[in-house]
Design brief:
Shape of chain A: rod-shaped
Order of helices and strands of chain B: EHEHEHEHEHEEEEHEHHEE
Strand content of chain B: 15-25%
Largest sheet of chain B: 5 strands, parallel
Largest interface: A-B, 23 and 21 residues
Strand order of the largest sheet of chain A: 2-1-5-4-3
Radius of gyration of chain A: 52 Å
Number of domains of chain B: 2
Order of helices and strands of chain A: HHEEEEEHHHEHEEHEEHHHEE
Oligomer: heterodimer
Helix content of chain A: 40-55%
Number of helices of chain B: 8
Number of strands of chain A: 12
Strand content of chain A: 15-25%
CATH topology of the largest domain in chain B: Rossmann fold
């Protein structure tokens, strides 16, 4: 299973994306809300302040002496009152603002909040600034025929409200929001960090939750793998009987039960059928051999009896092979476990097959290093004999057979290679199947049962080993048996 | 040598009986366990070939009942070849065990071995002075020259040789040499003995008048 395709990782992936989207949406909304709240309260305050500034300026424009003199901090001007009819209206003095003390303080140089005001009088010829007012504030161009009301504008980090007082005069109140935006950015950082933390926590929790709920699946798959490996009596154990997985486990266990039953049935049938065949084959063999023991009346009779005898002998080997397989399948055949030297077993087997090889003019070479091994020597001997006689049968005249034993990576390895035609790629994966014949015409005439390699495979696997067939590039086939070495567990 | 074959498959029974007769054995047959046990108990066979799966009474119980009375060598014939079956067969008193289908050659060799063992004669060749008996080949030589014997003559000689040093009564000899289908008279034995003496010399077989024969 590829890691990126596993359910755990896919669930984690989509769940993580979903969580990230939700957190980003939430954080962005919170940030926008905070920001617009700041702007909104600032604007409301600006509108209120521009109102009071405008009011003050208008009052200051009234005849002096009034309560709203633009210079309240100066002593009241000397001289006749303004309503003196004989006097020219005196030139306007540079106006100040008489604001409520708290409000006035908020414009002071050391006041927090970044508030300032600017008054442009007489088309900007005269400008009054509060201490914190930036120097580069352009005079707003206001349409003078518009109804007088505050106009809001934003310049960078600054928000300003301006209001025409009378033609030529404009009042402006502004606020530098640099600090507030700074705080807002800090807030955004905080949001981001919390979001990442929540995402990490969420992924961690999600991983825990997913792997916890998928753990029974891992158990099911482990058990199923063991069952598939041939341990048909095994069942999936689970404490979880309520959830969907419990249901799945029940269904799988039922299936395995039926599989085992049918497998046992098939094995028993094979064994029974083979047993039932024994007596008729015994009849055939006994009578043909009886007939062959006396002089036959004609050559035709002789040939017929010989053919019957050959057929009976073939049936006999088939019966034995089928029974061996049935027993290996059912695990009934008791396997001894003892330490032995694979190379000695191999050299004994080679001694037995040499006459067969010599009849076909085949050279048997061997390279037998002492190879300690664990298992049933009788059964392993059967495997060796099978592979070596196969190598002789499926060889060319005057060919070569090479047998090696060695210890490799803690395993006992036995290999047989021949100089025959080899095995076509398409047949390689099938040669261990029962009754599979790579070359039907030839191997049938050589008297094989078609079960030898299947038996070899069953024996080797019962030993916890493996067997494989390869075709060499330079021609010929190689069969390699790997068995647990002596001293290795299992 | 007289052999009993207990086998319920008629064709197999016929085949085995024919093979044994060809080899000069006197062969009785039984088709079920009950009949087999009755015959095995009433006649001193040199060997019994017993099938395991039999009607009426199976081979195991026949063997068990027979072992309570007789030591007749028994070869079990069976379609079961698991090691546990073999162990059970040998443990319950069988002397040998042969799995079907078998080669006739192997069956006959096992029967010969069984009879030798029953007579406590481990060697397949018996030498009696200048007469030599090769059991496997059923060949007899005198001073190295082959002697032609009929099947009955050979059987009588072999039986006497296997029981050499012991007195063999005429009835025992008759029982081991002729089977249930032979209705020849017992004085035929005297004819065979006299022929054997002619071919192998007069000193070989001694007559104990009124009792029987003996090879010293």
């Amino acid at each position: 299973m590829k890691r990126t395709r596993s359910i755990t990782w896919r669930l984690q992936f989509w769940y993580g994306i979903l969580l990230a989207v939700v957190l980003a949406g939430f954080g962005l909304t919170a940030y926008m809300f905070e920001r617009s709240a700041l702007v909104r309260t600032t604007d409301a305050e600006l509108e209120r302040r521009i109102g009071s500034v405008a009011r003050e300026v208008r009052q200051a424009a009234k005849p002096p002496g009034g309560p709203g003199d633009l210079r309240p901090d100066e002593p009241p001007p000397e001289g006749p009152p303004e309503d003196d009819p004989g006097r020219e209206p005196r030139p306007r003095r540079a106006p100040g603002l008489s604001l409520a003390p708290r409000e006035r303080q908020s414009y002071a140089a050391d006041a927090p909040g970044g508030w300032y005001y600017i008054l442009w009088l007489d088309q900007g010829r005269q400008v009054i600034r509060s201490p914190k007012a930036p120097a580069d504030v352009p005079m707003p161009r206001l349409l003078e025929d518009r109804p007088s009301g505050p106009v809001l504008r934003a310049r960078g980090d600054i928000r300003e409200a301006c209001m025409p007082l009378k033609p030529g005069d404009v009042a402006l109140v502004g606020r530098i929001l640099t600090e507030d935006f700074q705080q807002l950015r800090q807030f955004a950082w905080l949001l981001g960090i919390s979001a990442v933390a929540i995402l990490a926590l969420g992924l961690l929790g999600g991983y825990w939750l997913v792997s916890r709920s998928l753990r029974p699946i891992a158990e099911i798959s482990r058990a199923a793998a063991r069952i598939a490996a041939g341990n048909l009596g095994l069942r999936i154990q689970t404490d979880d009987t309520e959830s969907e997985l419990g249901e799945l486990t029940r269904v799988l266990n039922d299936t395995f039960g039926r599989l085992e039953a049918s497998f046992v049935q098939q094995t028993r049938f094979t064994a029974d059928a083979a047993h039932e065949l024994r007596t008729p084959v015994a009849v055939l063999l006994t009578h043909t051999q009886n007939a062959l023991a006396v002089a036959c009346p004609s050559e035709t009779h002789q040939e017929a009896f010989e053919a019957c005898q050959r057929a009976a002998q073939r049936m006999r080997s088939l019966i034995e092979a089928l029974l061996t397989l049935a027993r290996l399948d059912s695990g009934e055949r008791t396997m001894r476990r003892e330490s032995f030297d694979l190379s000695r077993l191999a050299s004994e087997s080679l001694g037995l097959v040499r006459p067969l090889a010599e009849r076909r003019g085949i050279t048997v070479e061997s390279d037998l290093a002492p190879t300690p091994c664990v298992g049933d020597p009788g059964q392993i001997d059967q495997v060796i004999m099978n592979l070596v006689t196969n190598a002789i049968h499926h060889n060319v005249e005057k060919g070569r057979v090479r047998v090696t034993t060695r210890t490799d990576c803690g395993c006992a390895v036995f290999a047989v290679s021949d100089s025959g035609p080899g095995i076509a790629q398409g047949h390689l994966s099938h040669v261990f199947e029962r009754f599979y014949r790579a070359d039907a015409s030839r191997s049938r005439s050589s008297g094989g049962t078609g079960l030898g390699l299947a038996i070899a495979k069953a024996i080797v696997e019962a030993h916890g080993g493996s067997i494989r067939a390869e075709s060499r590039k330079e021609g010929g086939a190689v069969f390699t048996v790997v068995l647990p070495a002596a001293g290795s567990p299992g | 040598m007289r052999v009993l074959v207990v086998e319920d498959e008629p064709d197999l029974l016929a085949g085995v009986v024919r093979a044994l007769r060809t080899q000069g054995y006197s062969v009785d047959s039984a088709a079920d366990g009950e009949e087999g046990l009755f015959k095995a108990e009433s006649v001193d066979y040199d060997a019994v070939l017993l099938d395991v799966m039999l009607p009426v009474r199976d081979g195991w119980s026949v063997l068990e009942a027979l072992r309570r009375k007789k030591k007749t060598p028994v070869l079990m014939l069976t379609a079961r070849d698991r090691p546990v079956d073999k162990v059970r067969g040998l443990d319950s008193g069988a002397d040998d065990y042969l799995v079907k289908p078998f080669d006739l050659g192997e069956l006959l060799a096992r029967v010969r071995a069984l009879i030798r063992r029953g007579a406590q004669e481990p060697s397949p060749e018996i030498t009696l002075g200048d007469v030599r008996i090769e059991q496997a080949a059923r060949r007899v030589t005198r001073l190295g020259a082959p002697v032609t014997l009929t099947a009955k003559e050979y059987t009588i000689l072999e039986y006497l040789a296997l029981n050499r040093g012991r007195l063999v009564t005429r009835s025992a000899l008759y029982e081991h040499v002729f089977d249930e289908n032979d209705d020849s008279f017992s004085n035929l034995i005297d004819v065979h003995i006299s022929n054997l003496r002619k071919k192998l010399g007069h000193g070989l077989i001694a007559t104990r008048r009124g009792l029987g024969y003996c090879i010293e």
